[in-house]
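Hi Y.,

Following your request, here is the sequence exactly as I used it, all 126 residues.
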Amino acid sequence: QVQLVESGGGLVQAGGSLRLSCTASARTFTSYAMGWFRQASGKEREFVAAISRIGDNPYYLDSVKGRFTISRHNAQNTVFLQMNRLEPEDTAVYYCAAEGGSRLYTPVLASEFDYWGQGTQVTVSS
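Below is the corresponding structure, written out as tokens. Let me know if you'd prefer a different format.
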């Protein structure tokens, strides 16, 4: 069982930045590909970004490319989501997820992830 704890959410004005962190309780953090998803009020959960076990092959939602960066620090069991030039449309609860299978590719579907955090609220005011 892996526990994921997100932090770093908050209220920011449009054009501002936030950095989300997610720390995992996994003994072998490098066994897990990591991802970020978000769910806005009244909408379905959507993929935002994902990164492989060794930190390469990042994937992004088209609307966040060039603004968001996913990275991981394996020695600290932590994955980050740096969010720049935030827009009101980015307002959502952001969830960290871990995938512990043997896929040879970076997962991007919610169904491919095995563990989820509780989420952290990001609110972008216009």
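The first strand starts at residue 4 and ends at 7.

Thanks again,
Q.
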